[in-house]
Amino acid sequence: MPESGPGPMLELDRVVSGYGDGVALHGASLRVAEGEVLGLLGRNGVGKTTLLKTVMGLLRARAGTIRFAGRPIAGLRPFEIARLGVGYVPQGREIFADFTVLENLRLGNLDSDDFSVAFDAFPVLQQRRDSLAGSFSGGQQQQLAIARALMGNPRLLLLDEPSEGIQPSIVAEIADVLRRTAAEQGVAMVLVEQNVDMALALCQRCAFIEGGVIAEEHPVEALRADPAILDRYLAF
Question: What integer is the mean pLDDT of 96-118?
């Protein structure tokens, strides 16, 4: 990344992490600039979700350093990292089905009853604010999960498979919201996504993870010009 560009919002330096006795990240290093949307791509099981969970404090980094806006965050608890300005949208959404839309959104920021950022992003949430989240379609639940993360006014947003199992019209709406959020508010994003078209449309740069390390990084223009790079890390 050119040194003359925006400063790093997120820095990982040789991070090691995993589950139990297993290691999934074997020294991953990565930088994400302020306002940059980075795609994190790779086959299943190579460490993409592990990386996001480690940044968020849901998994402990066993070695290496993680900095957010220049501050070390490895070892902080997830709620402490969230309060610093990191939002997380997990794979599978993990909304509370028995809670209303408003109750789910309030969990994104217990200090605020201003839901305008969520309602501006996805107007359907305002229309169904008192509905139980479990009555929503999968796509609407994903919108709710993203809106819940936006309630915390994040400076960095971590998104794990936001298009998974969602109809194309809602995928397009989600992509538009994320694009506007990055462009208008300067929110940096790390996007784990199997939908390559969505990743290339949203991201400025993509990093490929293989064997628990970042193997290559390329601007999206290079990936469009040379699809063989995508095949190298995504084809089975």
Answer: 94
